[in-house]
Each structure stands twice: as C-alpha cells, then as structure tokens.
Design goal:
8-stranded mixed sheet; alpha/beta
Length: 256
C-alpha cells in the first residue's frame, strides 16, 4: 500500500508538469523524469548510496552493468540521460508508457540488419546534447558477476565527436541493513523468464534495499585502439567495482 500510494503521488506530482513543460518549451527534452525516479525509488523503499559523481557535461555515454528492472528508477534517480531498451518494452503497458515518457531509445536486439539504424538513433541523441545510459551486457545478470560486454554497442562513439564514456557500477548490497548473500540474489536480480509483476512485488516485499552506485572516472574513447579494447576496459573496471561493493569494501577509484 505504501509503495502504491508513493508511486501515485510521484506520478501526479511529475507527469503533468513534465507534459506542460514539453508543450511550452523543448518538446524533445525530458525535464522531470529524474524526480519521478527519485520518488519511485523512495516509494519502493530503496536507499541509494553513491560513490563519486556523474560527469558534469553533456554527450556522455554511461556504461552500466544490468541486474534488474529496479535499475531503471535507481539509475534514473541519479543520472540525467535516456535509457536504451529492447523494443518490446514499449508494449509493456504502464511500464512502456513511462519508458517512452523518459525518452527511452528502443532497439531491436534480435535483428542484425537494424544495428546501423539503432546506432544512428543513439548517435543522434548524443549529437543533440543528450546523454545515454547503456547496459552493454545486453541482458540482466543473475547478480553473481558482471557478464561480458557486447563491443558492438560501443561503435556509436566513433560517430559522435566529443562524446565521453563513464563506466558506472551498480550493486544491491544490503537488505534491511544486512549484507546481501548469494541466496538473496534471485529476489534482487530479474533474470530468465521470471514474470515482471511477481518479481516486483517480491522485491518490494523485501523491505529496505540498499543500492550502491560507483561513478568511475570518465574515459576518452580515443585513448583505446578499438572498441573491443574499450569494451574490455569498461568491463574490467565495472566488474572490479561490483566485486568490491558485494564484499563490503570501499571503491578504490571514483570520479571526483
């Protein structure tokens, strides 16, 4: 009940104002989704702790590991950017409407011939001064590790002069103040064919969940010989940060 009331209050407080601002100013730039995600995270009883800061500029490609549907409100509460999601999300009822409301870039992951079009859509958003939040694993992990990154998703950096990449690590580290253990991971990570609604209800029913985010130092893509090397570096940085957070250790290196 608390979550439902908090979500409803957040929608009432942000959605009409956002639609009005788009109507009278810049139609294609979201203003208030970050406040919506903050309200939703609070309603879900998620406590967000950050280490470091997001890059203070436009045209940033945030590269993040992916665990759950809950990653969206958690990251959206701290980052001003558009998510990249599979095309099916647009048809997920209220979830799809909210994704479109936040100007999500939809991609058809199962259609190889559309890769160029998808890259162009992301590049256009970056050229316009926006930032993109990308999950380069291409799917959700089960929380035990960070899956290998798909280097093809990094090709967009070659199409946009001046873009920078910031690796970001996300981890759910505590439930009601106690460290997360392996047995807790299925309740936090949304994987396989698990239905969204039951998993969301189970997640919310856990109580107070602590999410931690590490903003690693931004990178200049030109410093790497190719996108595969860049993808490997980002993976290594994010995976190392994930291991430290899940072991209860402080991050070694964060963005000032």
């Amino acid at each position: 009940m608390r979550t439902a009331l908090g979500t409803a209050a957040t929608v009432v407080a942000t959605v009409p104002a956002e639609l009005l601002l788009r109507a009278i100013t810049l139609r294609n730039r979201p203003y208030l989704p970050i406040w919506f995600h903050r309200g939703l995270s609070r309603a879900m009883n998620v406590v967000i702790r950050t280490h470091g800061r997001p890059a203070a500029r436009s045209r940033v490609l945030y590269v993040v590991n992916h665990l759950s549907w809950a990653d969206i409100p958690v990251l959206g509460a701290r980052l001003r950017g558009s998510f990249v999601a599979k095309a099916e999300v647009a048809d997920w009822g209220p979830v799809g409407w909210l994704a479109s409301f936040a100007h999500t870039v939809y991609v058809a992951r199962d259609r190889r011939h559309s890769a160029g079009t998808q890259r162009n859509e992301i590049a256009d958003r970056l050229r316009a001064g926006g930032s993109i939040i990308l999950f380069p694993e291409g799917t959700n992990s089960d929380g035990t590790c960070v899956l290998p990154f798909k280097s093809s998703l990094f090709a967009v950096v070659a199409d946009v002069p001046g873009v920078i990449i910031q690796p970001v690590t996300l981890a759910y580290t505590r439930i009601n103040g106690l460290p997360v253990v392996r047995a807790d991971l299925p309740d936090l990570a949304w994987v396989g064919d698990t239905a969204l609604a039951p998993h969301a209800l189970g997640f919310i029913g856990l109580g107070r969940v602590t999410a931690e985010i590490i903003f690693h130092p931004p990178l200049d893509p030109a410093a790497w010989p190719d996108r595969k090397a860049l993808a490997r570096h980002c993976h290594d940085v994010i995976a190392a940060g994930y291991r430290r957070l899940m072991r209860g250790h402080a991050p070694e290196e964060v963005a000032a």
